[in-house]
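Co-fold these.
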Amino acid sequence: MASPFAWRVMLTLEVKGVPYESKLLEFSKEDHKSSGYLRLNPRGKVPTLKDGEFVLYESLAIMAYLDRKYPDPPIFGKTPQETGQIWRSISETESYLGLAGNKLITAIFFGKGLEKPDELQAAAATMREELSRLDTALAHSDWLVGSQVSAADIALFPLIQLILRAASKDAAKSLNLGLLPLGQSYPNIAAWVRRVEAIPGYEKTYPPHWK
Amino acid sequence: MASPFAWRVMLTLEVKGVPYESKLLEFSKEDHKSSGYLRLNPRGKVPTLKDGEFVLYESLAIMAYLDRKYPDPPIFGKTPQETGQIWRSISETESYLGLAGNKLITAIFFGKGLEKPDELQAAAATMREELSRLDTALAHSDWLVGSQVSAADIALFPLIQLILRAASKDAAKSLNLGLLPLGQSYPNIAAWVRRVEAIPGYEKTYPPHWK
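Predicted complex below.
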């Protein structure tokens, strides 16, 4: 599985044009539990950013740090109102689509929770509701907040990709979750996905083992 | 129950010295599901901020908006490093102490989950681990990040208060969760709580029905 959280950081770096070196951790080799990695990030999660001597983890924190250090282009808004709306969108992504999506992702990629189809159907209902809301928001706007790509888009995009990938697996197909095909159910989200994919450098952020 | 999320916003306003009018919603009267409130916040949750014609919900988003609009004193850091560390602390609060604490709070105040003592014990173990980590961090520093109160402290404080209140109820006492007394198990957190309580205007943020 690709980490949606690491993907956020790489997208941020590409949007800002900041050069970086990416190190892929292999979960099957328990790279994230090595003593060297745990010294950088005691929770053993990804991503972790090392910028000179400064080390930081938690994807949203890294995005906020990068925006403050490399302010152009701004991804957390140009006005207090945009800043608020961007963080609102991120909070909603985390609390609603994220929690529900995580149930599906965990079930499909790790086999945990497949024995509880009712919970997966409830999660799918939440996902459909959130995707409808997003599709409506994207009907008259290229980006979630403001006139350019922001942290709201960057925080959401990898989660959407992971949910779509999980939903396309055989184990999910038999559940009839009603999430696919994206372009049919949520055409505005599908168009927005293509806009994110057109960001220069996007292909460098794409999970290598998905190709 | 008091909303830890509304409390965050009121603490932010007091720290910044911004005048505000607070409207208490009574959940028992379903104030948060009234059509007037749902027009402001379609999710029907608290808090919602109305600043002139601008309406915003999600507590962290409101805090970010207020910090951008009323930058003095800054609560999201003075340097990129502080900004990153503050958001890291907030992300950790949400993902670890918050998710575990919510299980206890929901069980004690709403009776949901009391029939699963194993899950509550697991949540308590996570809470003890996170509180130990915080207690260590506060051993040599008055505030979680930097030399003054920040959004990291403001995001954490109401959650700590709510966990302590839940743990002190009879239904929790019999579970022997090992969270109380705070001053004995986590003396540095207890001292930090007193520092937050000493912020001018703090008493105006205290939930009225807790007095």
